[in-house]
Amino acid sequence: MAVVETYDPTGTLKPVAEGVWIVDGPVIRFGYLGLRFPFPTRMTVVRLADGGLWVHSPTELSSSLESGIKSLGSVKHLVAPNRIHYWWLGDWAEAFPGAATYAAPGVRKQARGKHRFAGYDTDLARGATYPWSREIEMLLVPGSYLTEAVFFHVPTRTLILTDLIQNYEISKITNPFFRFMSRLSGAAHPDGKMPIDLRSTFVKHRKQMGEAVRTMISWGPERIIISHGRWYESNAVAELRRAFRWLPGF
Fold it and tell me: 67 by DSSP, 3-state: which?
């Protein structure tokens, strides 16, 4: 039995809202303190008004997923939202050569260090505009370890996060040690948050983090898609206030 169960079926487009889909990917292992922790993965696809597809944190690309994506439209934008979520971007860029690639600060250096695809077209920057800016808002949340790009799809009021909230369902974790660590990290459902180890890297940036959360709340999202664990289909504003209550003022 797997250490962490996936959100089956994986590698399959699942509708979330009009023009928004998620794809649950495989469980990956990420090294920390000499251990390799298992993480379920998830990507998000948005169809823009011009019919082009915007792909956030692309996961493993299979032939069936490639066919499904092509049935939706033409991939125009591929986004690596932080320095951890870039691994499969090169495969997608190769499969969809007409797509532009975008990466958060730190991704280029990280990818080069891992000998992965680092020839991104555009580094995401605060205050910059992009071809999708009229439909998808973006803000950068800076931290000592990583800077994450946060997105909000205005037409469907869908907030798209990556690692700022993680929400692991204990029932999907078969290994007792990893169940314990998920609870200890503060990232276990139904009280998923930013894990405490990652949270510590934002200590010097709490003011910017607080401002970012207030911006997210001001957008009035209806749902929150996250990359790891159970995502939030409703009550998004309340979930934001709950998940970020470790910050002053929340």
Answer: helix
- Rounded to 5 degrees, φ, ψ at 157 are 55, 45
* Structure tokens, 25: 């990917």
Residue 31, pLDDT score: 58
pLDDT at 113: 92
CA–CA separation, 29 vs 9, rounded Å?
Answer: 19
Give residue-wise pLDDT tens across range 168-198.
999 998 888 888 888 989 999 999 999 998 9
Structure tokens at 86: 């870039």
- Residue 34: per-residue pLDDT: 59
Domain coverage including residue 97 = 13-243
Number of domains forming the structure of the chain:
1
In a domain, 215, yes or no: yes
Please report which residue ranges of the chain form alpha helices under DSSP H: 63-72, 89-95, 107-113, 176-185, 196-199, 206-219, 236-243
Looking at this protein, which amino acid is placed at residue 194? M
Domain assignment present for residue 81? The answer is yes
| DSSP-derived secondary structure letter, 228 | S
Beta bridge mates, 138: 151
Q: Are 22 and 225 in contact (CB under 8 A)?
A: yes
Rounded-to-integer distance, Cα 178 and Cα 173, Å: 7
pLDDT of residue 92: 98
- Contact status, residue 25 vs residue 44, Cβ threshold 8 Å: no
pLDDT of residue 35: 65
**Which residues is 152 bridged to in the sheet?**
137, 159
- The model's pTM: 0.96
How far are the Cα atoms of 56, 94, 195, 227 from residue 76, in angstroms, in the given order? 11, 13, 33, 21
CATH number at residue 94: 3.60.15.10
Low-confidence ranges of the chain (pLDDT < 70): 1-2, 31-35
